Amino acid sequence: MGRPVNHQRRAELLDQAVEYAIEHGFADLSWRPVAAALGVSTTTLVHHFGTKEQMLETILGRLRERTNAQVGAQPSLAAAARTAWVRTSDPRQWAEFRLFFAVYGRALQEPRLFAEFLDRVVTDWMNALVDAQGPDADPASARRRATLVIATIRGLLLDLLATGDRERVQDAAEAFLAALPPDA
């Protein structure tokens, strides 16, 4: 049996790996460059994260936590959707979301390697958006509205990242957000 994982050290390495992945993207995410940037050995990374794909899923999990923490703290679906859009459309976050879409594409091509990512990529955000609608919301309607928010924001963000046409995309986002019931 190997040495146990030091969870505090793993969390520190994870935060550093997240910043590395955001800066360098998905294509350059391999053991040696990450280890060198973090000042550790590849063995240390394997010990703390397992496989490269597991490390990537862990990185994406941390990024999901950042978004879900902001979205889940909102009092309504409209407020949660606006918070999500403001965060994701912020140019300072674009590298993070380029990474997200790159991994999403790879996960769809290799679902066995990214099963956890695919299981959670919608579910975590869906749960936060359903919860934002309150305990009295009809569950089927709440899930349908949450699905529309997720699909619309991701689509708008993909358009924004691909075209850089902030004015047009922001206008569409504002129209969508204004159409959401304020109390849902």
Automatic annotation (TrEMBL):
PROSITE patterns: HTH_TETR_2. GO terms for molecular function: DNA-binding transcription factor activity; transcription cis-regulatory region binding. Residues 7-67 form the HTH tetR-type domain. Keywords: DNA-binding, Transcription, Transcription regulation. Gene3D superfamilies: Tetracycline Repressor, domain 2. PANTHER family: HTH-TYPE TRANSCRIPTIONAL REGULATOR BETI, HTH-TYPE TRANSCRIPTIONAL REGULATOR RUTR. This is TetR family transcriptional regulator. It comes from Paractinoplanes toevensis.
